[in-house]
Design goal:
It is built from two helices and six strands; from the N terminus they run βββαβαββ. It is α+β, with helices and mostly antiparallel strands and 130 residues long. The protein has one domain: RutC-like (60s Ribosomal Protein L30, Chain: A, 2-Layer Sandwich), CATH 3.30.1330. Helix 1 runs parallel beside helix 2. The radius of gyration is 14 Å and the shape is globular.
Length: 130
């Protein structure tokens, strides 16, 4: 198996011992969880606004996917982590803007006790390049 590290300045730099994404065997892209960090300032976007945070998260995911040569259309699985499951409906509305319902990826969504930097939402994904 070949492994390629994916890095872009258009998404936040990792804040720990991990990479933004890994391409495995040239076809599978594993994108690390993205939070609402502005890549140019490293500041949280929308401190108490889950809609703004979700929009930034999706922008960060898109930047990493683009750096890997992928798009949202290539995503086959996502995991959504929420600080409060009561935010599910509004997060889902924003999330739905990025995926065609006919080809949307498989997804898990869970509430967690805490997320990095106390954000409200985090999303990770797996994409497959054709």
């Amino acid at each position: 198996m070949t492994k390629k590290i994916i890095r872009t300045e258009n998404a936040p730099a990792p804040v720990g011992p991990y990479n933004q994404a890994i391409a495995a065997s040239g076809e599978l892209i594993f994108v690390s969880g993205q939070i609402a960090l502005d890549p140019s300032t490293s500041e949280i976007i929308g401190a108490d606004d889950v809609v703004q945070q979700t929009e930034q998260v999706m922008a960060n995911l898109e930047a990493v996917l683009t750096a890997a040569g992928a798009t949202f259309e290539d995503v086959v699985k996502t995991s959504v982590f929420l600080a409060d499951m009561n935010d599910f409906a509004v997060v889902n509305e924003v999330y739905a803007n990025y995926f065609d319902p006919e080809s949307a990826p498989a997804r898990a969504c869970v509430e967690v006790s805490r997320l990095p930097k106390n954000v409200l939402v985090e999303v990770e994904c797996i994409a497959v390049l054709n």
